[in-house]
Every structure is written in C-alpha cells, then in structure tokens.
Write a structure and sequence with these properties.
Blueprint: E1 3-8, H1 15-29, E2 35-40, H2 46-53, E3 58-62, H3 79-85, E4 89-92, H4 95-100, H5 105-117, E5 121-126, H6 130-134, H7 138-149, E6 158-162, H8 176-194, E7 202-206, H9 214-218, E8 225-228, H10 235-242
Helix pairs in contact: 1-2, 1-10, 5-7, 7-8
Bound molecules: phosphoenolpyruvate.
Length: about 250
C-alpha cells in the first residue's frame, strides 16, 4: 500500500510564506514515488499553493469544508469551491474542529459525504482525549467516532487518521505499541463497516510526528502514513518526514 503523508498547517502561513515553502520543498521531494505527499495550507493560500504544485508530486488539501453546495452561509466554503481552488483532499473531523467549533459526529458525517460527492478525497480524523484514555474509554470513543462519522460513507477516496488528542502539539507521541494497538482496532471497526475493503484503507498516525520518530511509527503494520502539524511547517523537517526509512 502506498504511504500517505499530509501536512496540516492549521492557522499558519501567509500566501507568500506558502509559496516560499513550496518553492523550496517541491524540488527536494520530486524523486519520491512511493508516498502520496499532501499539504493543507489555510484557505487563503490554497490557490497560490495549487499554482506552485502544478506538475509536481505534491497534492493540495483543505483543512475544512462546509457540507452545503452554495447559499447564505456566511464565512463557509463549499466542496466545489475547493475543487475549483485545486484541492484533491479535505481534512474532516480534526480534534480542533471538534473541540473549538463543537463539530460532532453528525456534522463530521455530513461533511464527509459532501466532500466525496464533490469527487474529493477525505482525511477523516478520530482520536481520544487524555481523560478518555485514562478512563479506559479509548476503544469506545474510537468505535463511536468511526462508526458514526463513516455511517453510509463509501470507502473509495477515504483515508483515516488516528490522532490521540493528548499527542497533538504536545510533544508526547504515542508509543509504537499504543499506535499499532489503536490502528489495528480501527482496521477491525472498518472491517465491520466495509468487509475486506478495510484492508485497502490507509490509516495515518498523527500527534507530534517528527523526523526522529517517523521511522519507527511507519514500521507498524497498520500505520500507513502520517498527519503532521508542527513538524510540517519547515521544508527541511517535512522533507525528512516524507523521506522516512522503512524499518525492516
Ligand atoms: C495535527 O494537528 O494534525 C497534528 C498531528 O499536530 P502535531 O503534529 O503538531 O502534533
């Protein structure tokens, strides 16, 4: 299965900074063929990023979307507008959207369906908080988020990202064993939804991925890529991550 590594820049980088990053990053990764490389800048920089990425092996993603096609929804962006801007993927259900903007599983589900209908790929995020982990609820939370978020969703064009909230932006990475355990569980829940097609769905790990820990995380059987925040903001650092060495 081809690895999939995505940069989530969150609310960082102007249009100029986005162009500068890509002018430096793209030539450094042009030989990499065994990994899908994706970058998700803020909305304002999408079109400029699409121009820079033209003819390259780097794909554009949005960090969010609204589920309606058009109309009186001040401030929102429709899936077709993201297609128009040059996006190929959309991140949906990131824990920051769930936490700060109160997006629940039903909202996530509506967004995923709208994204797929527009012909875009989805990077669907799920993950437990520290409190939920310590309370022994990790698997219940993940099962609920996956089953409700993906209810009625076709798995073509679907990538799942496991992002333990306690590991996002904290410098605390899940251990290789913790990551593999939850990834295997997610694969199992996906099998319940999609049968043997679950084996083809890429499951990314996200949460303080760095050039130092990426090799061991990517060596886990059910880890098929990464979603990277902080360490994707500098070209040299993100190049090292997408050029990870597969441990045998
Ligand atoms: C993220 O927000 O998707 C993320 C994984 O962030 P970080 O790599 O900074 O923990």
């Amino acid at each position: 299965m081809k690895y999939f590594i995505a940069a989530n820049w969150k609310m960082n980088k102007t249009i100029g900074e986005t162009r500068d990053f890509l002018k430096s990053f793209i030539p450094m990764v042009k030989e990499l063929r065994d990994v899908d490389i994706v970058v998700a800048p803020p909305f304002t920089a999408l079109s400029a990023a699409a121009e820079e990425m033209k003819g390259s092996n780097v794909l554009l993603s949005s960090q969010d979307v609204f589920w309606e096609e058009k109309g009186a929804y001040t401030g929102e962006v429709a899936p077709a507008m993201l297609v128009d801007a040059g996006c190929r993927h959309v991140i949906v259900g990131h824990s920051e959207r769930r936490q700060y903007f109160h997006e629940d599983d039903q909202v996530v589900n509506k967004k995923i369906k709208a994204v797929l209908k527009a012909g875009l790929g989805v990077i669907f995020c799920c993950g437990e908080s520290l409190e939920e982990r310590e309370g022994g609820k990790t698997f219940d939370v993940i099962r609920r988020e996956v089953e409700q978020g993906l209810a009625g969703v076709d798995p073509d064009n679907l990538v799942v990202a496991y992002e333990p909230i306690w590991a996002i932006g904290t410098g605390k990475t899940a251990t290789v064993d913790q990551a593999q355990e939850v990834h295997a569980f997610i694969r199992n829940v996906l099998s319940g939804l999609y049968g043997s097609r679950a084996g083809e769905i890429r499951i990314l790990y996200g949460g303080s991925v760095t050039p130092e820990n990426v090799d061991s995380l990517m060596a886990c059987k059910d880890v098929n890529g990464a979603l990277v925040g902080g360490a994707s903001l500098k070209p040299e650092s993100f190049v090292k991550i997408v050029s990870f060495k597969k441990e045998s």
